[in-house]
Amino acid sequence: MATATTVIPHHRRRRAAQASDVTVTDPALVRRAVKAAALGNAMEWFDFGVYSYIAVTLGKVFFPSGNPTAQLLSTFGAFAAAFVVRPIGGMVFGPLGDRIGRQKVLAVTMIMMAVGTFAIGLIPSYASIGVGAPLLLLAARLVQGFSTGGEYAGATTFIAEYAPDKRRGFLGSWLEFGTLAGYVGGAGLVTLMTALLSSDDLTSWGWRIPFLIAGPMGIIGLYLRMRLEETPAFAAEVEKAEAARPKVPLRDMVAGQWKALLVCMGLVLIYNVTDYMLLSYMPSYLTSELKYDETHGLLVVLGVMVLMMVVQPFAGLLSDRIGLRPMIAAGCAGFLLLSIPALLLIRQGSLLAVALGMGALGLLLVCFTAAMPAALPALFPTRVRYGSLSIGFNVSVSLFGGTTPLVVTALIGATGNVMMPAYYMMAAAVVGGFAVWRMAESAGRPLPGSAPAVAEEA
């Protein structure tokens, strides 16, 4: 009987379980891996949340005064620019993760994101240095976008390859719990600053605080990730290659996986369009279209995210029981049928109506946040998982997800139709539904190219 691939901490060796072609994981090590990935993801997305929630102020700081709509469009343009380089980051970090290991690459992406975020807080205003201000902002955003190109795919791969097959949905859901925690931290800080600082103070110096805080936070995330060990699936892949790092040509990650890549891009499209619509665009929509003051708009979105955090782990558990496909399909159907009613509720303007509309969209989004971290890595075999997922994920996010605030703002400005956010989400739901139809169920089953994974019994 062959020895199973077993992950055991260096400081606490246990007798390896004996089984045939089974990966036995130490629950304590799995929990540590999940925490590090989720906390690191929270720290990275703290910046994205802050940038979105304080977009109106950033427009005043970094772009010429005049038309507020033009300032907001310019700010979201810089936001979207980071997504242009995400596929390039994915093409660099993804194959590297399949070559040298997931843990090392995730440490590098953390360093780069922390540097880019901290740098934004140091940039002088447009009033101080003129056109240099938006150029420096763009440069910092490009650094962030490049590093993020390897972040999400790496974090989902890391958790999926550590998790026992029957708990992959639940454990993966904690990654998006971390994302929501980052958004909540960013929204909470911006809301506090908006309430305590005058508009002049917020514009002159207050906006820098969250970006400067994010630098030290990145160091904490780096420390957590450096303490992790490599995933059992990657370790087994290296062992099969006779201790040599597996080399996979980029063309094999694309041409060899084109069907899975198309499914991945469709799933990521519905996931990220709705995610960025709700969490990044809606705070500005409430302010610019419904004339909510910034504090009340942010509080509504903050409440929705807290609701999502409460529901998230339970939805992850549910995905392990009923399957990932039904969970994602329910979200697609919900956005197709309820986007217009939810936005009509929001447009009524009363706090109750806005909370109900936003809450409904948030609960539908949980169908994706709970299932996608487990579903996406299962589309690809171990030898190309990080690389192929990085490419498919980031191309789709760059084309459709990160551009959502910019595109919807421009569509409303061009057509005058304030229902554009609902129509945009409905179109994304159609694409997502087709991708769900083409994907295979992976809940409770081994990852492609990997042995069955079970938790080590106490």
Give a short summary of the structure.
Helices cover about 75% and strands about 0% of the residues.
Could you characterize the architecture of this molecule?
By secondary structure, this protein is an all-alpha fold. It contains 20 helices and three strands. The chain has helices at 27-53, 55-62, 68-84, 86-100, 102-120, 126-129, 132-148, 151-162, 168-196, 199-206, 208-226, 232-240, 250-254, 258-288, 294-322, 324-348, 351-375, 385-401, 404-415, 420-438, and strands at 5-7, 23-25, 453-455. The protein has a three-stranded parallel β-sheet with strand order 1-2-3. Helix 1 packs parallel to helix 9, helix 4 (86-100) packs antiparallel against helix 5 (102-120) and helix 5 (102-120) packs antiparallel against helix 7. The longest helix has 31 residues, at 258-288. The chain is globular and about 65 Å long. The two termini are 22 Å apart. The relative contact order is 0.16.
Order of helices and strands: EEHHHHHHHHHHHHHHHHHHHHE
Largest beta sheet: what is the strand line-up?
1-2-3
* Backbone CA Rg: 22 Å
Spatial gap, N to C terminus = 22 Å
Poorly predicted runs of 5 or more residues: 1-20
Largest sheet: 3 strands, parallel
Classify the helix fraction into a percent range: over 70%
C-alpha geometry: globular
Strand proportion: under 5%
Overall number of strands: 3
If helices are DSSP runs of H or I spanning 4 or more residues, what is the number of helices? 20
Average of pLDDT: 83
Class of secondary structure makeup: mainly alpha
